[in-house]
Design a protein that fits this description.
Low-confidence stretches: 377-386
Strand order of the largest sheet: 1-2-5-4-3
Structural class: alpha+beta
Order of helices and strands: HEEEEEHHHHHEHEEHEEHHEE
Shape: rod-shaped
């Protein structure tokens, strides 16, 4: 079994990245320093060697015109065309071959540059030795120390600037992650995911997605809770009626009385069947929804639904009017439409004390208008409309319908179900 790796908080990434890039910067800086020093030494020797080599032509011309050895070309360069003219301390230079051009470090004399060659004059060969004192043409130890010190200071400044830039960049990358992690751990249900304004676009998109997912989860949780409460209420009511009617059947043997009880049982069983079918439609597979064909809403179907809520409307002295402009085609079954309209009508009846409730059926929508107290705060908010209306929301989403609540012209509320043909 694979063991999980060692976990470390994202906050430590800033220090880890700083150490990592600091190590790289030190290695690169040291490499560049050594390379620059070597290049300076090489460049210094190369320039002096070329200067000495170019001075050979001047020395040959002057010797051919009768100049005597040693010939002073510059304050630092001397030319010899006879071995016997060399000072005793330079006699060891004769051992170097013709064409030698380089700096010599010898314990017997100071550092110098030597160029040994020869030239021909009047048929005779003459040796030519050009000697340059290195101490007068090379940088002094003090100058080298100053150059090294300046190089180190420049590299240190660049190292600090580089480190500061790395810390700023890593913090800009890590701060949004840290902030989102803390917000995810928060137990506040109203917490809002956010990142600093200067964060990368992807972090802002991630925060927006998390906010969207949280809202969707909260909505689904409310719908699930509403589903459980609604199912419990809607299923217990007919069961209570069935149990009560069954008990009453045992009390009297009068045929008319028993017929009424049987009708109550049959009606309660039918109501339970419609409720179960409508609630199960919420959890059916999407393929089932796609395969369902269109059906026509008839006036008789709407009137049958109105009859179900008539006792409640009569108890409050309300009148329910149906305006059937046409018979539209819809996808939901009779059970689903029944649950939708019964919930809307019950809400309209409960919100009204008198007046008329109007049902308008058009080719693309169904409206239920009441003259009650209007929308309350929970119905106006974006968090839902209450128990029954949450079920309506879920059913409308199931069939791609649009459900809206809006205030009526004077008083009351208009509930609209919009559907696509």
């Amino acid at each position: 079994m694979r063991k999980p790796g060692k976990k470390s908080p994202v906050n430590t990434m800033t220090s880890k990245l700083s150490i990592y890039f600091a190590s790289i910067a030190v290695v690169v800086g040291a490499t560049l320093f050594v390379f620059s020093q070597a290049m300076l030494y090489w460049l210094e020797d190369e320039l002096n060697s070329r200067t000495l080599q170019n001075s050979a032509g001047t020395a040959i011309v002057q010797f051919k015109h009768g100049a005597s050895s040693p010939l002073i070309i510059t304050t630092t360069i001397r030319a010899y065309n006879r071995i016997e003219d060399l000072p005793n301390k330079y006699l060891a230079l004769t051992q170097y071959p013709l064409g030698f051009l380089d700096e010599i470090h010898d314990g017997g004399f100071e550092d110098l540059f030597l160029y040994r060659t020869e030239y021909t004059h009047e048929g005779k060969r003459f040796p030519l030795l050009l000697i340059m004192n290195a101490e007068h043409v090379e940088l002094s130890p003090t100058e080298w120390r100053n150059i090294n010190l300046i190089s180190l200071v420049v590299m240190l400044v660049l190292f600090l600037l580089f480190g500061f830039a790395i810390i700023k960049v890593t913090r800009r990358l890590i701060t949004p992650v840290t902030q989102l992690s803390q917000q995810l751990k928060s137990t506040d249900p109203n917490a809002h995911f956010s990142v600093p304004r200067d964060s990368a676009t992807e972090f802002n998109e991630l925060a927006d997605s998390l906010n969207s997912y949280r809202q969707q989860n909260e909505k689904l949780i409310r719908q699930e809770q509403a589903f459980a409460r609604y199912a419990s209420h809607e299923l217990r009511t007919p069961l209570t009626v069935i149990r009560g009617a069954t008990w009453l059947l045992k009390q009297k043997t009068d045929p008319e009385y028993q017929s009424r009880q049987r009708e109550r049982i049959a009606k309660a069983a039918t109501d339970m069947q419609h409720t179960i079918e409508a609630l199960l439609s919420l959890v059916k597979q999407e393929q089932a929804k796609e395969d369902a064909g269109l059906r026509v809403i008839t006036r008789a179907e709407i009137e049958h639904i109105i009859e179900y809520v008539h006792p409640l409307a009569d108890s409050k002295g309300l009148t329910i009017t149906l305006n059937m402009q046409c018979e539209p085609k819809i996808q939901p079954s009779e059970s689903v439409l029944r649950m939708l309209l019964i919930n809307l009508l019950n809400n309209a009846i409960n919100a009204s004390e008198s007046g008329v409730i109007v049902i308008d059926v058009a080719h693309d929508q169904i409206k239920v208008t009441d003259h009650g107290s209007g929308l309350n705060e929970s119905e106006q908010s974006t968090k839902g409309h209450g128990l029954g209306l949450l079920i309506i929301d879920a059913l409308c989403q199931r069939y791609d319908w649009q459900f809206t609540l809006s205030p009526a012209a004077h008083t009351g509320c208009i509930a609209t179900l919009e559907f696509n043909q």
